[in-house]
Write a structure and sequence with these properties.
The protein is mainly β. The chain has one domain: Beta Barrel (Maltoporin, Chain A), CATH 2.40.170. The protein has one helix and 22 strands. It has a 22-stranded antiparallel sheet that branches. Strand 11 and strand 12 form a beta hairpin.
Length: about 400
């Protein structure tokens, strides 16, 4: 009960505010995996039904003033609650101040395998703008406490300090620079604590209806241990242009590179590089329906002694997007391809053999009537390996029926 009291203190003020948007509903989710274990077909399945109640209160989030949102969900296996409050204030000369505090609580019912937790997070951010130039500073924290400790669930606190700067380079574009310092403290697992520095560069360019964005991030993480175990540099970059060709065709290619460099490289933590090239195109069949087609090439390279991270992957992604405001939104994505490993894996890594795969997903919302809507999420991911015992199939399904019974 003591863990729930702070959550209720946060929740009640947001409910009491004027200008409520309230929603209630019921939902169901299921996760199913099929694989071979000891020469026998094995199916692992979990599912949960739930009732939920959620809403916004006060001013709309992101605008000046005070606002909040919250959600309560009681399922067949656990209780979950979330509350958030945000305050915005704009001063003279384009100076703004934003603060936010949120709390999540999950409590599985007796006899369940999952542990419960409570998580608090918050930040204070100040930002100043001069015509095209802006600078900002942010202080944030996150604290998570579990009901039971284990190798993968341990209490921790993360503190973050971030500074950012943005300014045009060549007129109709924007350059962004950021630096963030963070440290994590885990009182029951000293080696899980770390120091982290993140450096960000982003560049956005617009011309006519065209757009290009470039992102680069570098991270240095040092763990609180007596050796170099786990310490690394991580760098990733992405280039994502969108170029209109006529009224209906849009070129949307993508190039992504990523690299890890561990101070003490091992088979578990190898030095690794990945490259993804995606030649995407989009076609507007109507103002409401768009289709996507994207051949993709992906390569992962690691040191020779690593058996699991040296492979190439070719695939084709097909997608469709159908959107009518307050009527229907439906997005589907289907990708099929094959992965080729560079070397024949040893017996202990036989599951990392060449395989053919399909990854399908769908997200949808149907407004049945004013205030009543049905949400759907589904994914299906089978893999067919050279050896049948290494085949793997995953299926996820979630649906919510929600009703907005009061709106300002």
């Amino acid at each position: 009960m003591k863990r729930i009291i702070p959550f209720l203190i946060l929740l009640f003020p947001t409910i009491a505010l004027s200008g409520l948007d309230l929603r209630a509903g019921m939902g169901y989710s299921a996760l199913v995996q099929r694989f071979v274990l000891f020469e026998e077909d094995t199916v692992s399945a979990t599912n949960e039904g739930k009732l939920f109640f959620e809403g916004n209160a006060g001013a709309k989030l992101g605008k000046p003033g005070f606002g909040g949102n919250w959600m309560l969900s009681g399922g067949t296996t656990s209780f979950f609650g979330r509350g958030l409050c945000r305050w915005n204030k704009t001063f003279a000369e384009n100076l703004s101040l934003t603060s936010e505090f949120s709390m999540d609580i999950r409590q599985p019912y007796e006899g369940e395998d999952f542990v419960g937790y409570i998580k608090e997070a918050g930040f204070v951010r100040i930002r100043r703008r001069w015509v095209d130039t802006a600078v900002g500073a942010k202080v944030a924290f996150e604290n998570k406490s579990y009901s039971e400790q284990s190798l993968y669930s341990y209490d921790y606190t993360i503190s973050k300090f971030k500074f950012d700067f943005s300014n045009p380079l060549f007129g109709n574009d924007q350059l962004g620079l950021s630096w963030q310092f963070a440290f994590r403290h885990a009182p029951d697992s000293a080696e899980a604590g770390y120091l982290r520095n993140n450096f960000y560069i982003s560049w956005d360019k617009f011309w006519k209806s065209n757009y290009i964005r470039a992102d680069i991030e570098a991270e240095r993480r040092v763990y609180n241990s007596d050796d170099l175990w786990g310490d690394y540099w991580h760098v990733n970059g992405a280039l994502t242009p969108r170029i209109g060709v006529g009224n209906k065709l849009t070129l949307a290619p993508k190039a992504v590179v990523e690299a890890y460099r561990y101070d003490w490289a091992t088979e578990v933590y190898p030095k690794r590089e990945t490259v993804e090239l995606d030649a995407g195109i989009e076609w507007a069949f109507s103002p409401f329906i768009r289709g996507q087609l994207a051949p993709k090439f992906y390569i992962s390279h690691a040191e020779k002694e690593v058996q699991t991270d040296n492979f190439r992957e070719i695939s084709l992604r097909i997608g469709a997007d159908w959107l009518k405001h307050k009527k229907i939104w439906f997005y589907s994505n289907l990708e099929f391809g094959q992965r080729f490993y560079d070397n024949e894996p040893p017996v202990e890594y036989s599951m990392f053999s060449d395989f053919v795969f399909i990854e399908g997903s769908a997200f949808g919302t149907l407004w049945i009537r004013e205030g009543l809507r049905l949400d759907l999420i589904a994914s299906y991911s089978p893999e067919w390996h050279d050896l049948r015992k290494d085949d793997l199939t995953s299926l996820y399904f979630s649906t919510n029926l929600r009703y907005e019974f009061f709106s300002r």
